[in-house]
Specification:
about 650 residues; alpha/beta; Gyrase A, domain 2; Isoleucyl-tRNA Synthetase, Domain 1; 4-stranded antiparallel beta sheet; 4-stranded parallel beta sheet; about 60% helix; binds arginine
């Protein structure tokens, strides 16, 4: 049910007497809002203030005129004026009940309408670089992208999902080099992906060491220079202590010293650590300038070298099988999985086109685009002829335009790639992609308890599979522990318990991720996320199971489904009304959550709904209510609460169980 647009449609004809485009005025997100002062109103309309200038009257007088004309009699039990001219609306309990009743006739959609004009939305999400082990950072894109896809689809849009796998980049040069020089055949035969991961890490460590070694002299030179800069800036600033710009220069210069110093310390530490490991040193010294060797393997692959192509064709299915097992576990599917390699043959054409349009130019042998507002150019072909991530992204966008004709194109990718996407969108506009809303749906970093990017004790980024296992194990301890289950009086089979732990554990990880505003970093706290209390998946899942258990109890006491289905919803008591109003807002909440693609608005809603259900259940007896009609009405409200919680979780990609 779209409450907001219905209310807007009632104000529109009244405002039309004064302004040409009342719909635009009413569409502003802060025009008609759920009231924060619930004791006075359910909704508040700020429609008089914006007309003050135009009508040359005080808002109070305008509000009075509006209230005398607006026809909300069927929807509202009262329409009053508050403060300087706000219009306060109290919805009629009968109307709320009638709207909610509609949901029972449409269990699939709970009476959520489909948008009148569906948009074609392409969502690029998850998109890991295969051949590297997946890690906790990949959860964010996968889980956020999947929920946005589900919500938009549910609202009636035509959604196309594409997992833009990194299946063609330098990481393949790394594993090809590693495979040719360092492989353990037995290990590869037994567990190819584990061996490839080992090779990847080994090559990466050697490159890291060699880079650090090469950087130390440069950093040692840079540090005193940076310190000199600070001294100079300080001198100037001391001479004019009030000059804010100079003070800022000092701060900047000091920052640079700190950074150079930290980098130097890090490089020295990493070199010292490696030098304690003679076996590692021997290998590193036997493969000097490994970075260039790896790049050479990558270029050979891209040039079609038979041996490297053969290795790539051997490796890729194994790598894909590995990530698909994670997707199966997370229950995430994609419509397409073209991946970067798919666009390889289109890349020369992209560069030629950019040159022909005079958007790109030769610079030091590379082909670059110098874009307004950015220091660094976008490079689309390197000196050695190699194409880049950006080139592939341009080819991909052009392909998607042709293939899908999207109205909206979303890229659910780490915030660290913001500049890449700003530049990309800039270029796409220049080559004529003007009608598609291009949006980098960015997200922050997953942090450990120490506030640094989440890592295990051994210092490596956590493998995703083991993380999921751990969440399921913790969920088992919290939800399936014998004390808790024995006190619930229900017998659970082993299989049922395993299903509960899996549903709660995987749900916990997804929910924790989604419940933070995607743009901020969040602390990955396994203990917190599996709890049964608080803003967690388990709390919502438990609330759902509770609604089911109440309905089962009613059934066992003789309530038939016929009785329930024909019962009238009658919202009388405060907590009933609060809960009913909340359920009525489901569709508006979903719509609003997609204005900025924020699934955390859905988790907030579900958490609030579960809490309202809890107060309702505490304050309003259901099975022991005063009359049989009230019993049935409250059972229906319980039922609809459960259905809404379940649907909400489903749209976040989170499952439910009937008992827990
Ligand atoms: N593979 C990239 C990474 O792991 C993300 C790709 C995102 N999508 C895109 N079209 N650039 O960083």
């Amino acid at each position: 049910m779209r409450v907001l647009s219905l209310i807007r449609s009632r104000f529109a004809p009244v405002l039309a007497a004064w302004i040409d485009d009342p719909t635009a005025l009413l569409a502003a997100l802060d025009r008609i809002v759920p009231s924060r002062e619930v004791q006075h109103a359910d909704y508040q309309a700020n429609v008089a203030m914006p007309l003050q200038k135009k009508l040359g009257k005080p808002p109070l007088a305008i509000a009075e005129e509006i209230v005398s004309q607006v026809d909300l009699s069927d929807i509202c039990s009262s329409v009053t004026i508050a403060g300087q001219g706000y219009v306060n609306l109290r919805l009629s309990p009968k109307w709320i009940a009638a709207c909610l009743t509609e949901a029972f006739a449409d269990l699939e959609r709970l009476a959520v309408t489909k948008v009148a004009v569906p948009k074609t939305v392409v969502i690029d999400f998850s998109s890991p670089n295969v051949a590297k082990p997946m890690h906790v950072g990949h959860i964010r894109s996968t889980v956020i992208g999947d929920s946005i896809a589900k919500i938009l689809k549910f609202l009636g849009h035509n959604v196309i999902t594409d997992n833009h796998l990194g299946d063609w980049g330098t990481q393949f040069g790394m594993i090809i080099y590693g495979y040719k020089h360092f492989r353990d055949d037995d290990a590869f035969a037994k567990a190819p992906v584990a061996e490839l991961s080992r090779l990847y890490r080994m090559v990466q460590n050697i490159i890291g060491y060699q880079n650090a070694l090469g950087n130390i002299p440069k950093l040692e030179l840079a540090l005193p220079k940076a310190e000199q800069k600070v001294a100079l800036a300080k001198q100037k600033s001391d001479a004019s202590p009030k000059d804010k710009k100079l003070a800022k220069e000092v701060a900047n210069a000091e920052n640079q010293v700190r950074e150079a110093h930290d980098e130097l310390v890090k490089a020295k530490e990493s070199v010292a650590e490696s030098q304690h490991n003679p076996a590692f040193l021997a290998v590193a010294n036997a493969h000097p300038d490994l970075n260039s060797r790896v790049l050479r393997e990558t270029s050979k692959l891209h040039e079609g070298d038979a041996e490297n192509i053969k290795l790539w064709e051997d490796f890729l299915p194994n790598c894909k099988a590995e990530i698909h097992s994670v997707y199966r576990r997370l229950n995430v599917q994609f419509d397409y999985e073209y991946g970067e390699s798919y666009y390889h043959d289109l890349l020369p054409g992209v560069v030629e086109d950019l040159l022909a349009r005079s958007l790109a130019v030769q610079s030091d042998g590379a082909i670059c685009l110098f874009l307004d507002g950015y220091e660094a150019p976008m490079i689309v072909r390197k000196q050695d002829g190699a194409y880049l991530y950006a080139t592939t992204d341009i080819a991909t966008a052009v392909f998607r335009e042709r293939e899908f004709e999207p109205d909206v194109s979303l890229y659910v990718v780490d915030h660290r790639q913001s500049e890449h996407f700003q530049k990309l969108f800039d270029v796409l506009r220049k080559i004529g992609i003007n009608h598609t809303e291009l949006n980098h749906v960015c997200f922050g970093t997953v942090l450990g308890n120490d506030g640094k990017p989440f890592k295990t004790r051994s210092g490596t980024v956590v493998g995703l599979e083991s993380l999921l296992d751990e969440a399921v194990e913790r969920a088992w301890q919290v939800v399936c522990n014998p004390d808790r289950l024995n006190s619930s009086g229900v017998e659970f089979t082993e299989q049922a318990k395993r299903t509960i732990a899996e549903t709660v554990g995987i749900g916990a990880i997804k929910y924790a991720d989604l419940s933070h505003n995607r743009t901020s970093n969040y602390i990955f706290d396994m203990d917190k996320m599996v709890q049964l209390e608080g803003n967690t998946a388990a709390y919502i899942q438990y609330s759902y199971a509770r609604t089911r258990s109440i309905l089962r109890k009613a059934e066992s006491e003789g309530t038939t489904s016929d009785q329930l289905n024909s019962a009238m919803l009658d919202l009388v008591a405060g907590p009933e009304l609060t809960l009913g109003l909340q359920l009525l807002r489901f569709e508006d909440m979903l719509t609003q959550s997609m204005c900025d693609y924020l699934p955390n608005m859905v988790t907030e809603y579900l958490f609030e709904t579960a809490r309202m259900f809890s107060s309702f259940y505490e304050q309003c007896p259901v099975l022991k209510a005063e009359s049989p009609e009230t019993v049935l009405s409250r059972l229906r409200l319980t039922d609809l609460t459960g259905l809404t919680l379940k649907k909400g979780l489903e749209l976040l990609g989170i499952g439910t169980v009937e008992r827990m």
